[in-house]
Specification:
With 140 residues, the chain is an alpha/beta fold. The protein contains four helices and seven strands; from the N terminus they run βαβαββααβββ. The chain has a seven-stranded mixed β-sheet with strand order 1-7-6-2-5-4-3, covered by helices on one side. Strand 3 and strand 4 form a beta hairpin. The longest helix has 11 residues.
């Protein structure tokens, strides 16, 4: 299944986040693809808000993973694998415990750990041009 949103701006990002979570409601793991500065972290912030996260969502670039609480009280995990140099680093942080937990996981730079992502997930592709973005969500 694939769905694309075009001309996405900061103003309509909350609506797109809600629609995307509804569209891919059978999935809890989302891999965000896009160039540096495409808006991956900004979109994770909006997805998290939609789930009721009230904490300030920040890029976990140095921590690799941040944990937030959804409105339901369930954890929401946000990964940023950009600085990963070896796959072993993902194992060191216990990534398996997170992705097999059954809770929402948002993964930035999944290309760095692609061989570890052999389970059901939804891929989000973000491309930007000027002040708008195109967001595509695809899953099997």
């Amino acid at each position: 299944m694939t769905r694309t949103w075009t001309s996405v701006t900061l103003e309509n990002l909350p609506e797109v986040a809600a629609e995307l979570l509804q569209f891919a409601s059978s999935h809890k793991i989302f891999c965000l693809h896009g160039e540096m500065g495409a808006g991956k972290t900004t979109f994770v912030k909006e997805l998290s808000k939609t789930l009721g996260v009230s904490d300030e969502v920040q890029s976990p670039t140095f921590a690799i993973v941040n944990e937030y609480k959804a409105g339901s009280g369930d954890p929401v995990y946000h990964f940023d694998f950009y600085r990963l140099k070896r796959l072993e680093e993902a194992y060191d942080i216990g990534y398996e415990d997170y992705v097999y937990s059954g809770y929402y996981c948002f993964i930035e730079w999944p290309e760095k750990v692609e061989s570890l992502l052999n389970f059901a997930k939804a891929d989000i592709f973000i491309s930007s041009d000027n002040n708008s973005r195109t967001i595509t969500c695809r899953y099997e």
